[in-house]
Fold Pre-rRNA-processing protein PNO1.
Amino acid sequence: MPAPTALIRPNNELVEAVPSPVANDDDVLVDASTVEASLDTPTQAPDDTEMHIDEEGIPRFAPDKTLAPCKKSESRKVPIPPHRMTPLKGSWAKIYPPLVEHLKLQVRMNLKDRAVELRSSRHTVDVSALQKGADFIRAFSLGFDVDDAIALLRLDDLYIETFEVKDVKTLNGDHLSRAIGRIAGKDGKTKFAIENTTRTRVVLADSKIHILGGFQNIRIAREAVVSLILGAPPGKVYGNLRTIAARQKERF
């Protein structure tokens, strides 16, 4: 047992202090309930940071828990043609709500650069939200209506295909004008017939043709447009479209 020590009180009196028996390492008592509780409590194993080899001989590493998951903010800039800036301003009230409320993106219209800027934030959940938003803005810039372009946000199997008349056949002057006229038809009836039969949307922008729809539907619509460019009479194209429509009804 250690020797007693002397303590000095504030009034300069010496008082002999007797050490507590618990202070001695040999006299420390342990309660039995404490021992039982410690035996029942499993010991926590250290973090498994070693490399393990599976049955195929491939090394497997445990995930690093020291790094916190972080989401990098990405941005896209979609240019808008000059002739689509006025429709963009007029339809802006219908364009930004799906991007902000549905895709949880940050969007703004840059009038100086004539572009729409999109950026993901910490609220963005879908990984492909930024790409869907860019495709939506691009579809509107090509000439599609807002209601038709919104389908790109709701469905995953929709695409846009663009080609020119000269990719099919080299036409100039009046020959090019007549080819475009055959595609559109009187009051747009031929174009509407192609859209309704193939369940697509077709935009005629000068000598460029943009088609929005599913993969198979785009193929059928493209074949009809190519036939009209090559000089097929509209009556023959109508007949082919009727046959396709009848087959689709039988299929569904």
